Each structure stands twice: as structure tokens, then as C-alpha cells.
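User: two proteins, same treatment. go.

Assistant:
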Amino acid sequence: MRILSEGERLIDKRKLTRKIIISVVILILLFLTIRSSLAIPVRMELAPPSIDVVLYVNKTHYVPVTIRNPSNETVYNIKFTNVSSYVLVPDPWQFLNPNESVTLNFRFFSANEMGETGFVTVLSFDYLLNISQQPITYPVYLDSSGFSITNLTVLEGDSVEFINNDSNYHTLTELPILPGSIDRNLSNQGDDYTLRPDKNYEFFDRNTGVLFHLYVVERDPSSFVHSSSLDSAMDIRMRSILSPVSLDLELITPTHTIAYNESGQGVVKLYNPSNATAYNVSLQADWIVFLEKWFDIPSKGLKVITYNITPKDINDTSQTNRSYFLPISAKGLNLEGLSYTNNTIEVYIPYANLSVLSTDKFIIYRTILSINETLTLCGVDPEYPGCDALIKEVEKIVIKVVEQNATVSVEDFKRITDKVEDMSNILERRENLQTQL
């Protein structure tokens, strides 16, 4: 065996090193090629990861949601599925390049009050995979709301079939409108038109005014693939409440003068300056009965309400000849506040001498006994003019004071006592006259 010289051994070593380097490069290139053809993205990132929203009835609420593609591969046809009728999700997004983000708005709306409800929406996407796949035909339907989807990405060689799914006519009009551009009438339900696109298109439906965007991606020969294991779930919880409103109160008759045993009447106005209806509104105040309760006031609406006012618990002279202040308050299903320059009704009670009818039952009883003793004089001549009416009137006051334990007006009491005194004097003079005879 020939022994290699030092120079020959050095040359062989260099050759071996070169071979190793070339092999490593080939392996790296092969790995990158395989990775490029078989690469699978990772799950998309969502921010926020969940949504918890409170809606106002008949008010639109938007929640921005950011989608980020953290992978090194471009993803396509990014869309949300399995949504509630209360939520309008964005149209499918055409594509997201590696490490790119997009922010889309979720639209929430409810026409009625609703307790908490929840659902899970799913974010899915397609990605390109280098596998053999036959061309696909994608159906797109037209109805009263326009196109069933408004964005679609397909591969070269795929087809799109536009189908009229409505009883009304629709059109497939290419934009911009130029000589030779597509302008197809789908007049009847079931009419269809199939297009194998070789470029990007923008179509316009003359019936609904809705636009449709069609994007074509080169077939390399990778094909779109969807993997449910890469879908992202978003938990959405929502409830709707009535929009809070504040009403403006105006007192048309802010002051009253009412005797302690009488009633008065007044008017107030309520105006709703908000953009929502005030529901089941009711007013309250001491001494006051509002003649209409539990009413609604629409946005920018005006309500005029009449009320009766009756003083209560005025039993003493010291409670008269003074003013009472009665604040008005309001409540309602969605009433947040009551705005006013003045919400207090002033009631002046004129002077009345109520001390004659003291709450001391002994004084009342003694006064009535005096009246009864005087009335016995009518027994001398029951046919004497005025006796019958006097007896009935005195009986009325006796029943009112003693049996019902009620307060008698000073005017009524004075009128009775005056009549009794007049009758007593007449009967006494008549009795003296009969004695002299």
C-alpha cells in the first residue's frame, strides 16, 4: 500500500470537506423546498379573544376585532362563521401576509330588550398547499340583499357560478363599464352565469347596488386547503337594555291658593329631548293625583298632564295661612333623570279658624250637647217653621263629628251654631209670650 504524502493527504481532506459542504447545502435546499410546498400556517391570533357587550335597544354598537397572522405563510379567505342574527360580521378578508394584521368591525343591533345570550363564532381561513387538485366551481347567489358573499378568492382555472336566487331580476355588471365588459341579466329565479376568471373582477348588481370583488390567484400548482384544527373560536356574550333618557319638566301652574277643605287643578308638561323613547313614565307628589300614569313619550315628544291637588291632614289653625311646597318626582323603565328649572308646586292655604273644632273630644261632645239642648225647644212646637230643617242639619254635623270622627269646616259649624242661636231666641220669646198669656 502506497503511503500518501502530506500534500496528498491535505488535498483529499479538502475534497472531503467540499463534498460535505455541498451535501449540507443540498439538504438545506431540499428542506426549504419541501417546507415551501408543504408548509402549514398556525392558528390566527384574535384581539380581543372574546367579546362581552351591552347594547342599547335600537342602537348600533361596533366592536373592533384585530386578526393577526403570526405564521410565515400567507392565508386567504379569512372569515367568521356561526354567528347570531344580532351580529353582522365583516365580509371575508381576501388575504393576510405573514405577520400582518387587519382590524374588522363587528356590528351589534337589537330591536328589543334581551337578557344575556351567548354564542361562539369561528374564524377560519384557507392556505396554499402544493397538492394536485381539480378546478373548483364556486356558487354565488343573488337575492334581495345582493350577493351571498361580497369577496371571493379563487385559483386560476376555477369557476364562479352566479345564480339568481330571487323572484326579482338581477344583473352582473362589470366595473368599470367599458365596451366588451360583462353585463349579464339574470332576469328570472334560477337564471345563472358561469365565469372562469383569468383576472380580478369587480361586479355591480343594478337591482340592489351591491358590489362583488373576485380575486384570482395563480395556480402554482398549489391549491387552497382548509384545516379545521387551525380555526380560532371567539366567545361572544351580549345583552340589550333600553336606552336611558332624561326628561324636561315644566310647571304650567306652579302656584295654587286652595282652602284646606277644597281642591284645585293644574297642568305640567314633559318633553323628551333624547333620541330614544321614554317608557312607562309616571309622576308623583304629595297631595297630587296625576290624571294619566304609565305613559310613553317618544323621542322629541311632548306630553301635557293634568292633575288634581287636594290638601291633606290640615286639622289645626296653625296649619293654615301658610304655603306648602310639593316637589314632583318621576320614574320610568329607562328614565335616568328629570331636568327642570323648578319642580316644586307651591300651595297656599288661607287662614281658617279650626280651633272651634278641637281634636279634644270632650269639647266637641260638650258643644254638640249644647246644640241638642237647644234643639229640644223645637219639641214644644215641631211644626214651627225652620225646626225640621234645623234638626236635619244638626243631625248631619253630629253624625259627621261623632260617628265618623271627621273634621267639620269652621264655616259649617258657625252656620249651624248661628241658626241654633236664632232658633233658641225665637223659641224662648215664644215660650215667654205663652206664659204671660
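Protein 2:
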Amino acid sequence: MKVKMSSLAKTVSLLICLCFLSISGAAQKTDEKAEAILKKAVQVLGGENYLKVKTQIGRGRFSLMRDGMIGSFQNFIDVVVAPDKERTEFKAFGSKNVQTNVGDTGWIFDGDAQVINVQNETQIKDFKRSLNVSLDNLLREHWRGKAALGYVGKREATLGKRNDIIKLTYDDGLAVEFEFSAEGLPMKAIYARTNPDGEGSKEEDRYAQFVDVQGIKTPFIIDHFSGGKLVSRINYESIEFNKSIPDSIFAKPNSPKDLKKDLKL
């Protein structure tokens, strides 16, 4: 049976459609602007050279900061195979610690105790979170299908400049804001973190000292702030891209003795 729509119903229906189209159009424009900022940053960092990176080997120092000064530091070698394999070795005062992750699995070597432990659920979750808030994850688009990208607006930067802000919102609620300079250079990532006691804090990674390596601009300094305070610094001394990495280095060793030798790549 056909029923004629009243004039009021038609009007309401038309207003709803117009409102929906207006909202959808605004969201689409916002997404397009965010996508444009992302693409500009990729070009600034090296374009196809940047996008084609599959492996990275970084060497340098990891420092814990106190009142803006270095409190202590460790030498490190960090090996990454995209999208979710990483092995990091820390050395200080003759002692070595190793953290290795492969997707949903991982292990940790405690050099002082001479034990190798399988990572627990919390440690695996922290690793995945570190991937999701990383600059490379954003720009190489490993978030596609897991998060939505949107444009936030502009934020005051140094010397009267304003940075563009784009935001990744993951399906699990994690939100990460990334700031880019007017020239398209990545400046920082901002996100929230909750500690085991349920207390929240604002976390911030700031990128500095960009160096051209194999046609790719990469930050050699990454400062981490928590609650507005500088707490740690990664200072790279060298970075190599697309070097062959054997899968065997990610496998859990049978004995601590297997980890006595330095990693050779």
C-alpha cells in the first residue's frame, strides 16, 4: 500500500538529508586536509625513498633525564623490520639487556640476573602501543584499517609560527596527535598514557636534528616528555636503512650464553 508523505514529513526528511550531507562534506574536507599534510611530510622526508624502507638499524645513546640534564645513559643498537619486528640491545658498565618483539610475542634478557623471560601481556601491549604512536607508523600508513585520520587545526609553535595538527583515533580509543611545521617537517607526537595505578599522564615525543641518510631525512634526537617534564632522550649516532636482517636474531635464545656476543649485522 502506498502512503503519500505529508508536507511536514517531506520537509523534515529534506532537512535531515541536508544536515547529513553537510556533516559528511565537512568530515571529508577535514580528512582530505589531513591526508594532504601526511603526504607533504612524506615528500619532505624523502618521498619514495622513505616509503620503501623495510629495515632500520640504529646505534646511539639512550639517556634518562633529570631536571633537563642527563642522569644516566646506555649505549644501544636497535634493529627494526617493518611492520612489527624489533630487537633492542642496551649496554652499560659491562651489562647487557635485550628486548625483542615479533607481533604478539616477545622476550627479554636481563643481563644482571642472566635470565631470559617471555614478555607478559602488559609488555606486549606496551610494545604495540609504541608502534601505534610512532611517526613511521603514521607516515607509512600501517594504521590503515585500524584507525581514522582527521585534521585538528593549528597550534602555536616557536617564534610566532603555527603547526598543523592531525590526529589518529584507533578503534580501541587510543588517540595520537602529530604536529607538523608549515614546511611539512614532523615536530612532535602527543598522546595519553595510563600507569598501572590508573593514573593518566600526557606523553609527548619531540623530533629534532633531522639528518639526510640514504636520501631519507630522519630525526637523530627524540626527546620524550611525560607530564610536561623531559624524562628521556634517544640520540642516534648512526642509522642504516634496508640492510638485510636475518630472522634468527628475533628468535628466543635457548640460553643466556647465546647472548654474550655482540650483535653483528
